[in-house]
Amino acid sequence: MATNSSPCSSSSTNFLPSSYIKNERTVLLSRFVVTVPRKSTGVTQIHSRAQGRKYSHIKSSNGHPLNAVSLKDGLDGKGIPVSEAEKEESTLSITVVGASGDLAKKKIFPALFALFYEDWLPENFTVFGYARTKLNDEELRNMISGTLTCRVNQRENCEDKMDQFLKRCFYHAGQYDSEGDFSELDSKLKVKEAGKVSNRLFYLSIPPNIFVDVVRSVGLRASSLNGWTRVIVEKPFGRDSESSGELTRSLKQYLTEDQIFRIDHYLGKELVENLSVLRFSNLVFEPLWSRDYIRSVQLIFSEDFGTEGRGGYFDNYGIIRDIMQNHLLQILALFAMETPVSLDAEDVRNEKVKVLRSMKPLKLGDVIVGQYKGHSKSGRSYPAYTDDPTVPKGSLTPTFAAAALFINNARWDGVPFLMKAGKALHTRRAEVRVQFRHVPGNLYKRNFGTDLDMATNELVLRVQPDEAIYLRINNKVPGLGMRLDRSNLNLLYSARYPREIPDAYERLLLDAMAGERRLFIRSDELDAAWALFTPMLKELEEKKIAPELYPHGSRGPVGAHYLAAKYNVRWGDLGGDDS
Ligand SMILES: NC(=O)C1=CN([C@@H]2O[C@H](COP(=O)(O)OP(=O)(O)OC[C@H]3O[C@@H](n4cnc5c(N)ncnc54)[C@H](OP(=O)(O)O)[C@@H]3O)[C@@H](O)[C@H]2O)C=CC1
Ligand SMILES: O=C1O[C@H](COP(=O)(O)O)[C@@H](O)[C@H](O)[C@H]1O
Q: pTM of this prediction?
């Protein structure tokens, strides 16, 4: 079967011709219509190898079977049905570029192992680590073995599974801008692929200044000749509209948009994924989902540790770019979008872009910034942000910010979407809080006391830790009198679903393998997101606005309260009676 003959449409298919990658190599290939014959292997043998594995019916996160998604309804690039044998003949190699780094060790290798542990990876898979650090295969295995864990509730065969997984892991040391080094990687990949249809996923777990170098080398020297090639790009995608646009243009010299998987790991979190389910599959919520009933929406992120070792990266970005412009804004878009036509990636992303483009660019007057200072408590001292040796002295980079955003459409006109994000605060938490309006003419007003705010209903989606969805309602305290209190209707995940919740990276890696783009950021979404934040960020930096200092481990600067008060709202996380 010929696989290399023509440039492909933008659909996702397991048999994307190599010309799907725009580069010298593929231009050549498409010009001379090179075809790579697929070696055939015994069908019986392949079937027996595949017996009992989940991968033959893998589902991506929107419920599509993996094969249906990645093989485009079981057709190859020319509409020819692809047999089961052919599907199983393909290989998948996942190359983690920046394998020696923090994210790779902490998240990516463990997520790959978790997928392997639960039989989500295909039969023929290989994992390669790539970085400059000189390591051999065994050293890579030793390095990552310390961070692999088995599901708490399924520890059987854990050691065996780890050994099996580690045997599939290999390492190639190379420079990020060296086409020669990537050619060598290509040769090693080919050996593992053994002439089968090869699908290649590259995870760029590296600093952003080398994204383009790597994509160039991958595109020119290490892309698949007969299968698909996809690249997962980690954030930050630029630091403003211009640099983000420049990055997108540069990447698109070597890749098509459909090959670029811009990851925002918050989209892979269980509760974020559930947001649309909650809204669109329950009759009770959607009718309330508008300015008619909702008084404010709050998106809150806090960490109880500082930049710790990442100060060098962080100082160039700050909390607004690190958390708000991506993670919190993505949640906002999912929260506020109209009902998509379907769960297909483009339908969902079209709705998200519409919301983002309906928003008013953030004004400096609607933002407050803070930075943590050193603090001593119970004989222990906690460092200031500027005590980090990788942070320049006198840095004005915000480690905390609160902002009020507005959506200029009929559904949300006038509703403040308040965001708050900070490092080195008193707790680690991420949540969405929906505050409903006061009950009009309430029969029970006098039972609430003077503070009507205390009596508003609030729906809380606690993304982490202790995933939960709860609704704060007014309730009669049992007894002969008529005393009301606020109680929670509480769906605590650990009680309802005792199974361990997969890490966000597992879901996202699986989707990238399946060619499912719904949870990845499209370039127009990214443009719209930067358009909202860039003017304010520029002004903040040009005016050298000094952040309000807050003690390490505190609840953050008081300015956040004034910002909420400006819109007649209180932060819901400060009420103190959370479940
Ligand atoms: N760590 C985290 O929690 C998160 C990280 N990210 C993003 O993921 C990506 C990777 O993050 P992380 O693992 O923390 O990054 P690291 O700083 O650990 O870098 C990863 C690897 O890249 C190489 N590298 C580092 N600096 C340079 C440089 N200046 N020039 C060339 N190579 C360099 C190093 O490998 P070697 O020297 O061996 O080549 C290093 O091990 C980044 O884009 C980051 O923003 C996103 C979310 C969370
Ligand atoms: O993207 C980032 O996210 C982490 C927080 O992720 P979480 O899944 O642990 O909540 C944050 O620490 C980091 O600064 C940021 O770059």
A: 0.88
